[in-house]
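Sequence in, structure out.
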Amino acid sequence: MAIAQRIVSLLPSATEMVYTLGLEDHLVGVTHECDYPASVKSKPVVVRNAVPVETMTESEIDKAVSERVQAGLSVYQIDEILLQQLAPDLILVQDLCDVCAPSGNEVSRALKVLSKTPEIVHLSPKSLAGILENLREVAQAAGCPEKAERWIKETSERLENIAAVTQPLPRRRVFCMEWLDPVYCSGHWVPEMVKIAGGIDELARQGSDSVRISWNDVLAWAPEVLIVMPCGCHLEKVVELAAKLATFPGWSDLPAVRQQKVFAVDANAYFARPGPRVVDGAELLSHLIHPEIIPWRGPETAYRNLNI
């Protein structure tokens, strides 16, 4: 089976999959958000923001993105001239979330400029199993299916090991906050990660989109562990945004706050992107939920305890 010679990735999680499969030398184009591993930053950037999120507040981002999506506009812009020059034979796209990557309409328009139609692989996972299957699909399209099977086997075993360790432990009430202003619960694969890690998040929407929820719902749930993981943010940005939580009504009454179990995490690295590092995210969650039992052997930059 021939390996795809020129791959363009239109979402960061797919880029990480390409590297996991050892195909980085065949990756010719990425998005502006592709930042892992560090060597990817030398790749040509095909996609950029259509919304200046760097200079906007969370509420402004939420409003701007919602308005563009409702109007049928993309949140991203594809450099069609560069895409034509790169002449990919495989493009990795997704239609799971218009906020995470170019929309289907945007991609369709860009493909019209190409003289040769490339193979398109759509990645739209809503669960951990879906993420593993996506890696299999990428490997199949790229001509290296055996590499995916080895990784999937190892990853499945790691997840099973986490679940085995946490299974006899107390189920702690957890709330994973995917956005702060307005407040969003977690969705898709994150609730599944929480369960594997030994927690329960009744505000979450497993297998479905994260949605806005009332802060009163959080107060009523009274989480014992609160994980702040706004989509699209690395740790330092999460810590910055989380400072406002102390102003929320009833904040100091939450069990998680009283027990100093509020954590900021690197959302991009371990939770928001449906890629290879979600297994590390499950291990991180197991440590945050049960620190007295489960150690964290990953980077210190993965999380921070927020004593606010």
